[in-house]
């Protein structure tokens, strides 16, 4: 395996290996009681998620619109025992951040949201996990997060409903054929950016987080379906917000950039 494949294998391994040993997925306020690989969860200073507070953000006009280049690719829908995920098989495209290309590997959903905005949490949160194969890049993981509130049914989730309903147990996988990440409709003209961590053990730090400011909608039935489908008997699968410490939260606002040019 090359480093690209190995790093992704390690992330997938940790997503699944640690979940049963923790009370984290049942909404615990702390995580990381195990030692060694779990140390960052308890002692890390760059942990995620965080509250995106308006009085803590710094407007950075030069960040620019998100540079995404996604395309359809064969995908598998997986019940990982704590969430439902889509995993793309080869090349579903990428996002460019600071001159580095990060390739989309999978997406999954949390409910309620993990990040909050001005102490307000939302009904669901989507994470798009990207990995950089560049050996010279220190921060190899980039995550795009999309927040959802109860409203009109989400079109992507609607296309997955019959598959999710058929997932009878943990580790169930279903091939769902060509799946277009662009159907997620992340937007990209307004977003938050900060340095954080994975929100599941081992809580690896150095993750580049991008949270889009556009709040999408999801139906109450869809939230219920995706939460109950994993059969973990937990009411939530979201980690509580973590201390910001001395981190900066950057924000890009397309309208402010236009104003600055005038």
UniProtKB/TrEMBL annotation:
Keyword set, alphabetical order: Lyase, Metal-binding, Zinc
- GO (cellular component) term, any one: chloroplast stroma
Cofactor(s), by name: Zn(2+)
Its recorded reaction(s) are: hydrogencarbonate + H(+) = CO2 + H2O
**InterPro entries with a match to the protein in the record:** Alpha_CA_prokaryot-like, CA_dom, CA_dom_sf, Carbonic_anhydrase_a-class, Carbonic_anhydrase_a-class_CS
One of the protein's GO biological processes: one-carbon metabolic process
Q: Which Pfam families match?
A: Carb_anhydrase
* Alpha-carbonic anhydrase domain ranges (all copies): 11-253
Judging by the UniProt lineage, the source's domain of life is: Eukaryota
Q: What GO MF terms are annotated?
A: carbonate dehydratase activity; zinc ion binding
EC code: 4.2.1.1
Q: What subcellular compartments does it reside in?
A: Plastid, Chloroplast stroma
What family does the database annotate? Belongs to the alpha-carbonic anhydrase family.
Reported function = Reversible hydration of carbon dioxide.
**Which named protein is this?**
Carbonic anhydrase
- What is the species of this protein? Prunus dulcis
Source taxonomy lineage? Eukaryota, Viridiplantae, Streptophyta, Embryophyta, Tracheophyta
């Amino acid at each position: 395996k090359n480093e690209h494949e190995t790093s992704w294998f390690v992330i997938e391994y940790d997503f699944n290996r640690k979940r049963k040993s923790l009370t984290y997925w049942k909404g615990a306020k702390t995580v990381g009681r195990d030692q060694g690989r779990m140390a960052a969860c308890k002692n890390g200073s760059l942990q995620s998620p965080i509250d995106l507070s308006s009085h803590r953000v710094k407007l950075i006009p030069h960040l620019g619109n998100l540079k995404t280049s996604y395309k359809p690719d064969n995908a598998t829908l997986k019940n990982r025992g704590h969430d439902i995920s889509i995993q793309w098989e080869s090349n579903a495209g990428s996002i460019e951040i600071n001159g580095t290309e990060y390739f989309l590997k999978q997406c999954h959903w949390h409910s309620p949201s993990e990040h909050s905005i001005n102490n307000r949490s939302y009904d669901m949160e989507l994470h798009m996990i990207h990995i950089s194969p560049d050996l010279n890049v220190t921060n190899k993981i980039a995550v795009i997060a999309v927040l959802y509130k109860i409203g009109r049914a989400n079109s992507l989730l609607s296309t997955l409903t019959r598959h999710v309903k058929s997932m009878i147990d943990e580790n169930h996988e279903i091939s769902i054929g060509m799946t277009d990440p662009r159907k997620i409709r992340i937007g990209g003209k307004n977003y938050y950016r900060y340095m954080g961590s994975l929100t599941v053990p081992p809580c690896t730090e150095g993750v580049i987080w991008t949270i889009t400011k556009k709040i999408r909608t999801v139906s109450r039935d869809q939230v219920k379906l995706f939460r109950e489908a994993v059969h973990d008997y937990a009411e939530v699968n979201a980690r509580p917000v973590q201390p910001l410490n001395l981190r900066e939260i950057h924000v890009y606002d397309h309208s402010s950039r236009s104003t600055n040019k005038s």
